[in-house]
Amino acid sequence: MPRFPLRRSRPPSRRWRTPPPPAPAEASPLARLMGRDEVVLADLRGRRLVAGRRVLVTGACGTVGSALCHHLKRLDPAALCLVDRDGAGLATLAHEMTGRLEAARVRIGEVDVGDRAAVDELVARVRPDLVFHTAAQKTLAAVERDPCLGVIANVLGTRTVVDAAVRNDVDRLVLVSSDKAADPTSVFGATMRLGELLTRGATGGRTRFAAVRTGNVIGEPGSLLSTLAHRISAGEVVTITHPEVARHFMTVDEAAGLLLEAAALAEEAETFVLDMGSPVPVIELVHRYAEQLRLPEVTIRFSGLGPGEKLAEKAFADSERRIRTVHPKIWATRPAPPPAGLPRLLDALCAAAHEGDDDEVRLLLRRLLPEYRPVRRPRPQHEPGGEPPLCDAGRSPDPPGL
Questions:
Q1: Where are the beta strands (DSSP E) in 52-171?
Q2: CB under 8 Å to 26, separation ≥6 — which residues?
Q3: Kindly report the CA angle at 28 between 27 and 33, in degrees rounded to 5?
């Protein structure tokens, strides 16, 4: 019988061993501040929508507006019209656009959106296919002190842009709103909610409308983190309104991407919201940022909630039905039909605002919006010469704040 040599078994070669799983990617500094991963919104739908079309952006020099313009310039629009009241800011932004677009495709319009004649002339001349309306007065405390200012900027301005879009057969218009529009307790939130209703009331023609509720926007460009960094590094006291105050946070890229997604998804004046997770306690955000700066010692004082401010915001009102979209991180709701007599009441509201009648403006806002339940508190008392609270709950989305 033939004999075969014995073979001794050898340990498996290293090259055949299963490699260890890759280490999880470290969260970005902004993700650690927000307590969640940043939502990456692909440009595929946006590119199909924007390429070869004329686009107009109001409030182009603001935080969200300028971030949106930088996104748009990469999507090959036929023309990009930048609209703002800030002439110097427009010139700078237009120069930044020409790094990607030919100068002939970039236009500027130094226009106040409350000026009906100027807006009509501009829209008729540019004939945009897409309009992104980001211009507004977004400081909650300022609007609460001067409700006429908020109505003129946020209601009359939106009405003017919406009407011009309808008259000039704009294909799509997207409005930037705020999470403070959900069951509003402030004049600012009420004006944002009215803006959403204006888009709902304008449906039925060629133009498709959508609104986007943003949270508090952080990241570059912006003043929140630089202000916070200065106060912490200088050993100054950081003032926020309340130990339990919490806010939704999002990055400027998320805000710009959400606007583009909303434009692509718009059908029946939906209001779109990014899934931002649970509101982040502001006191935690301050401590997280202090740790990132390697300056864990931070002194915090509390000034008290101001008029119209909530402890925590919510993305949807209790009465609103959430609707899934094709994007797993974007939800929508369809607003109820606007109240009967909306045009007449809006005329009265704008007339009262132009006359400077604060009491009549507040009364008409409550008639227009039964869900508006104002919270009237005394204004927080600040130390003479001291810094205002970092958590001024109305500085969302532009300039960014808490």
A1: 54-58, 79-84, 106-110, 130-133
A2: none
A3: 95
Count of helix runs (H) and strand runs (E) in the chain: 14, 15
pLDDT tens by residue, 280-338: 999 999 999 999 888 878 899 999 999 999 999 999 999 999 999 999 999 999 877 88
Contacts of 100 (CB under 8 A, 6+ apart): 73, 74
Per the structure block, which two tokens stand in for 382?
Answer: 């600040």
Per-residue pLDDT reduced to its tens digit, 121-172: 999 999 999 999 999 998 999 999 999 999 999 999 999 999 999 999 999 9
**DSSP 8-state symbol, 156:** I
Using DSSP's 3-state secondary structure scheme, residue 37 falls into coil
DSSP, residue by residue, 122-145: HHHHH--SEEEE------HHHHHH
Mean pLDDT in residue range 349-376: 95
> 7: how many CB neighbours lie within 10 A of its CB?
6
Find the angle CA(385)-CA(386)-CA(390) to the nearest 5 degrees: 145
The CA-based dihedral angle spanning residues 292, 293, 294, 295, taken in that order and rounded to the nearest 10 degrees: -120
Judged against a pLDDT cut of 80, whether residue 400 lies above it is answered with no
What does the block give as tokens for 261? 């997604």
Alpha-carbon distance of 402 to 391, in angstroms, equals: 4
DSSP state of 16: G
The size of the chain, in residues, is: 402
- pLDDT confidence of residue 248: 93
Contacts of 59 (CB under 8 A, 6+ apart): 65, 83, 84, 113, 133, 134, 135, 136, 176, 398
Does pTM surpass 0.85?
Answer: yes
Which class for 22: exposed (0-12), middle (13-18), buried (19 or more C-beta within 10 A)?
exposed
Using CA atoms, how far apart are residues 319 and 358, in angstroms rounded to an integer? 29
DSSP code of 152? I
Would you call 36 helix, strand, or coil by DSSP? coil
Q: Cα dist. 353→147, 154, 346, 356 in Å?
A: 8, 11, 10, 5
Kind and range of the H or E element at 330? strand 330-333
SS3 240: strand
